[in-house]
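Good morning,

Attaching, inline, the backbone tokens for the sequence recovery test we're adding to the shared suite. The designed sequence is right after.
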């Protein structure tokens, strides 16, 4: 469906045919189809429609030209894009293209030895006063794209022209690609010369640290010495030493870094250390940060609490609470006196993982915040964040007693923190205060949290009462609270209670019950598989789209885990498939794969033609596993195993996701095995896959035994996306990768 008109593309195309046959005016329908097809990047159809538009003598709009240029740029049809731009200039010289169109065209010209034309286009942007809101961001991407190809002259000339025309202001972000272009060509001498020039012109030294790292890694001692002499001239010997220390740490040369730290007269420059620590945190470079913390242990004036605070932050980012506790232990062993800030931060981390806190958390009080320009709401929030719920509650009550207003959001946050600690009675007291003072009403999130806490405490009566109130109010409860209650009913085999809740939920909310798998689980607890089968058939005959929502996959899986006979299940699936309800066949297959039952999975495939006819469902399974399962590699390999020597599935797509899974696990042996197996099967390995494998080998320190595709992986991702429409679902999954 096309959102703008809520008419399907097929309907629009059929309408065009009808109007042609009737000899009607086609301008409106052609324009709508053009916009739909350009939005969907359908180049050929877009150009066919443009041709028909022109032949009919209709006058195009600037927007039509812009949309056509967009699809041309996306498909790499640069000649056509330039022709359209020329046509637009003649048709409407005042029409302003957005900056993204210029970015693509300037890149195209610069990459094809047409720098003067690219610079002319930059001047045109100035003359037409093209929008400036996204100018810096788009300029950065444009320069970066050219820099990745090592186009040093093009990057410099385009950047300098844009600065001269006052389209952008020079800063580290925009000057950086000039240096990157030299680095892409492995011209480190040129990169250093460029940095010197940037320092002279703009007083900035972009990518200086990155160049130092490359010089250290590649052993260019003479160039490194010249770079350090330059750094010393610019910001002194101590800062120069820090530049080199950080370069050694990044390169893994910790002994050399230690020697520099031990230089006589060396003192801690905590701002410089902070810069590098934050760089390590941003790059998730745990080893470098740990080593820097270790080698600065005896450095004069080094802020040890701050160093360990950086480590705790990075471990927290990696969801490694045990490592956070190890850092705390190391701090105690070293005799570091932790700041209140560090203790509160670590306490919040431990609370979020329901871990005991091995120290007394310093309380942040309202009095401690009196010297800061904060209003009451900000003070309460700050005290809450520090873990002092009693202090926040006390300040809230004092504020209300003084007659001052407090926003409902404050009550919301105080109640939520109380519920996190299971303090239901205190939370309800604050709720009553809020209702009396500002017409406070519990949000659906808070109501859900209260429901969960009732269930945790075994207070099912109050949980049921709260759920009834929520349903009576017309609100749709959040699934997590209902799920917990239904799981309790399922464990106790309370099938009738579950069915009553389902009926009430669907009647009051006019939406489907979200926890269908608990109903089927209760049937299993009662030993009534036949009843479960009848329930599934009834639900799916009412609405076949419920296949994924009623918990069949979980139900089938539980039967497989208990080694229960599946005769009734197969008979049911047979009946439903005969009625063109295909979902149960797929759910039965997935449940076999989930539980490692490969022989059974083969039987399911052979039994149901629909699986072989619509084998993309197996690709969907591989995509799902990459996103969720801990045994992802084994699960995807199962798909390859059960489809071996079969021709109904494009196995290269399964290998695509298997390689992604190996990449996520840093399993370079598995990655190489994918390449070997694809070659043995005569399957084509795309440049995208080869580049991904090359990057995997590089980050795991392994040699690359094949010719690595030269462009960045983003180039091959886009190429793969544009080359085949059937690849779109896969590429959507990998868009955020580096």
């Amino acid at each position: 469906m096309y959102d703008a008109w809520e008419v399907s593309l097929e309907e629009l195309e059929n309408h065009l045919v009808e109007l042609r046959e009737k000899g009607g005016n086609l301008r409106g329908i052609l324009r709508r189809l053009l916009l739909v097809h350009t939005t969907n990047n359908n180049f050929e159809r877009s150009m066919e429609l443009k041709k028909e538009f022109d032949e009919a003598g209709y006058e195009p709009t600037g927007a039509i030209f812009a949309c056509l240029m967009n699809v041309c740029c996306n498909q790499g049809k640069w000649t056509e894009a330039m022709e359209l731009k020329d046509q637009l200039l003649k048709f409407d010289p005042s029409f302003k293209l957005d900056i993204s169109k210029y970015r693509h065209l300037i890149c195209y010209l610069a990459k094809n030895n047409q720098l003067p034309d690219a610079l002319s286009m930059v001047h045109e942007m100035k003359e037409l006063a093209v929008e400036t809101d996204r100018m810096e961001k788009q300029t950065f991407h444009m320069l970066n794209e050219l820099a990745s190809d090592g186009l040093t002259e093009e990057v410099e000339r385009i950047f300098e022209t844009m600065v001269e025309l006052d389209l952008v202001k020079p800063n580290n972000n925009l000057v950086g690609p000039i240096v990157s272009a030299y680095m892409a060509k492995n011209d480190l001498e040129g990169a250093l010369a460029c940095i010197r020039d940037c320092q002279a012109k703009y007083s900035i030294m972009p990518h200086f640290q990155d160049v130092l790292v490359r010089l250290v890694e590649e052993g260019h001692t003479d160039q490194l010495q010249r770079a350090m002499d330059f750094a010393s001239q610019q910001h002194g010997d101590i800062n120069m030493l820090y530049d080199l220390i950080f370069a050694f740490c990044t390169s893994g040369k910790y002994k050399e870094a230690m020697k520099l730290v031990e230089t006589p007269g060396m003192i801690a420059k905590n701002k410089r250390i902070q810069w590098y620590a934050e760089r390590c945190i941003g790059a998730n470079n745990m080893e470098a940060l740990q080593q820097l913390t270790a080698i600065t242990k005896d450095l004069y004036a080094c802020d040890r609490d701050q160093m360990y605070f950086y480590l705790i932050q990075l471990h927290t980012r990696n969801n490694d609470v045990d490592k956070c506790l190890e850092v705390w232990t190391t701090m105690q062993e070293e005799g570091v006196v932790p700041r209140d800030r560090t203790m509160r931060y670590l306490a919040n981390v431990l609370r979020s993982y329901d871990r005991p806190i091995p120290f007394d958390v310093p309380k942040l009080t309202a009095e401690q915040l009196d010297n800061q320009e904060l209003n009451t709401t900000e003070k309460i929030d700050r005290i809450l964040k520090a873990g002092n719920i009693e202090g926040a509650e006390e300040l809230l009550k004092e504020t209300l007693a003084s007659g001052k207003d407090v926003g409902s959001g404050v009550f919301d946050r105080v109640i939520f923190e109380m519920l996190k600690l299971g303090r239901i009675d205190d939370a309800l007291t604050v709720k009553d205060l809020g209702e009396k003072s500002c017409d406070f009403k519990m949000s659906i999130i808070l109501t859900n949290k209260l429901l969960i806490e009732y269930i945790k405490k075994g207070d099912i009566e109050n949980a049921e009462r709260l759920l009834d109130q929520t349903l009576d109010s017309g609100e749709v409860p959040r699934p997590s609270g209902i799920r917990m209650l239904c799981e309790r009913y399922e464990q106790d085999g309370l099938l009738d209670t579950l069915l009553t809740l389902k009926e009430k939920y669907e009647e009051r909310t006019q939406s489907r019950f979200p926890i269908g798998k608990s109903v089927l689980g209760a049937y299993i607890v009662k030993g009534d598989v036949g009843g479960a089968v009848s329930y599934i058939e009834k639900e799916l005959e009412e609405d076949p789209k419920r296949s994924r929502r009623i918990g069949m996959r979980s139900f089938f899986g539980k039967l497989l885990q208990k080694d229960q006979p599946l005769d009734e299940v197969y008979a049911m699936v047979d009946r439903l498939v005969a009625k063109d309800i295909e979902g149960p066949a797929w759910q039965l297959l997935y449940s076999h794969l989930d539980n490692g039952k490969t022989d059974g999975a083969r039987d399911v495939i052979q039994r149901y033609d629909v699986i072989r006819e619509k084998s993309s469902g197996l690709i969907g399974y591989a995509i799902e596993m990459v996103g969720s399962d801990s045994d992802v590699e084994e699960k995807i390999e199962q798909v390859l195993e059960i489809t071996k020597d079969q021709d109904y599935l494009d196995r290269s797509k399964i290998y695509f996701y298997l390689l992604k899974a190996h990449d996520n696990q840093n399993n370079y042996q598995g990655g190489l095995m994918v390449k070997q197996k694809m070659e043995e099967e005569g399957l084509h390995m795309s440049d995208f896959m080869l580049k991904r494998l090359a990057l995997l080998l590089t980050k795991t320190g392994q040699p690359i035994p094949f010719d690595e595709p030269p462009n960045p992986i983003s180039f091959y991702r886009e190429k793969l996306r544009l080359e085949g429409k059937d690849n779109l679902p896969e590429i959507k999954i990998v868009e955020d990768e580096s």
